[in-house]
Amino acid sequence: MSQTNFPVFQLASISFIKLFKPIRASFLLTVLLFTTVFISACSTKPVTKKAETPDKTITKTVITKETAEEKLALAQTLNAQLATSERPSLEQQAKVTQLLFEASELFLQQQNYPKALWLANKTTELVQGDLHKTYLLLLVKANSLQALNYYQQANKQLQLASELITYTENDNSIKTLKLTLNYYLISTEVLIAQDKKVPALNAQLNAFALNNHASTEDVISLWHELETLTQWQITLLSNSKPPFIKGWKTLLFYSHKFGSNPSQLARYLSLWQQKNPTHPAMSIIEQLLASDPSILQVENIAILLPLSGNQKNAGLAAQQGILAAYKNNTSSNMHFIDTNKVDWENLAIHFGELKVDHIIGPLLKANVEKHLALSTLQAELQIPTLLLNLPLQHALAPYQFALSMRPEDEAIQAAATLSQQNYNSPIIISHQDRVSKRIALAFSQQWQVSTGNPVDIVYFNQGKEMQASLKESLDIDASQTRIKQLNSRLKHTIKSEPRNRRDIDMIYLVGTAAQTRLIKPYIDVNTSPFADIIPVYASSRSHSNFNDKNSSSSTNDLQGLTFTQMPWLLNSKQQNKPLTKLSERLWPKRTDSLSRIFAMGFDSYNLLGKVSQMKRAPYVRHFGQTGTLKLNAENVITRSLIWGRYQNDEVTQVVMD
Q: Which of 20, 432, 461, 489 has the fewest Cβ atoms within 10 Å of its own Cβ atom?
């Protein structure tokens, strides 16, 4: 195993081959003397740990009869006796080692992390024949490093501990060790600090299963963490198979699907109780039943859209989506307001006359900023509002919500999902336009967070420059050069095919549907017949539902392409098929971008009364046409998309497990 470096102390690595190698007495004495002198001379004050996350604090303070310093003093006394003894016994040596081991743990409990770390490192060298002590010392080092905010190094020690456990499980001649509660507690804090939410929750669930003193408050804390997960994060967590996950997953699904309907929720929670009588979440069912998910009454809705000017088509598409969801609902009145003609300064007065109690829009970013600025000054505008775009500057008030259609969000979902597919060497091939660059960068950053490894981004332009950049990224140019060099040295030309580089095992493609139709077959053609097919994944921009249905060109060139997409533009279980057929009949030539805005308008009307529920009960979801929607802590409604794939000359929904 590789050695881990720490800025102040050098951490020892473990060689399992040498675990049973006996330690010579002379070496023990040398190490002990050096250790004692170092710690006695060290006057470093304990490092103050930064504030920890509530409900996740690792208890480190215990009542002990002796301090770490007293343990070290006793070890020094015994060491002096060993130094003068002609035949130091193994029992005496073991006693000294035990004292050092106990002292390292006591320094940790006393929150003297530098001393705990250094002593644990040195003591590891003395207990190589004792796998249990080696494991515990790795946890001391991981705990100390985590407390000192060296999270990457702490994670390295945890990995060593996990590999040690695996080593014992694979060797029948030694006692098998198991990962402990403390291991998972430390892992939780390290992973939270590294912004790895799903792995952190996996560690929490394992810690909970090992905690014999877990309380109802611990269950509630777990639930509050689980209910904030997106649909794709739940899938990733489920794939890790932590304890009790099957019951948790079913409970989350029922809460997501029926959380806005008390009678339905009660029925499904009763069903869940019958099937999961011993699940720890049984203790919070009554709390879920007692929640108040009532929907606010919506009577007069003002809808701010660009119904004239350059963005007229976008405004009309959103309006048509809202009307499709409205279905002539007589319990509420809708007032469409053209943001290109409205008198913004007198908007509040106009709303007062109309008795507006809810707002949808504006749609354009500039108008979103204008509306938010006015709402801080005029009480008539301080009512429940669902913005159809994200603000750039102004913060959202508690009564304001924003429906996000950010392309970066689907790149984050894709990177987190694909990082669990055993791909080790992906590359990103992206067009150089502004949106594509944002998507590529978001994918790259999330891949780094999920795996700890960087991923290369290869940018391309249209035409010959695209071919050149793709050749370079796949190392085809280098392969062709090698063929030419061989041919120049031989009398007869060698029949050879260029080979792509073998280290690439996945490509994430970012570009428009037209660009993808050019690039995908080029990748397929330039992949060596001697290498495995490189799977190609893409964002929703690479899929054109409009082209698939209205173009005479074949989809053969796109076979195998897998992409994220909203349910509205993909034949899927979540798609509103009757509305899809009606929409295609009324607007057969509507573009993909306008179809997305139509779906957003449709979802916005259904969300208007529901978003207040989502605020009070974070587990409530809306299974819409733009995706599965959840409200985050910043009052932004985010989406989980589904996956589609071109196969057998058609596009079908696929599940990415």
A: 489
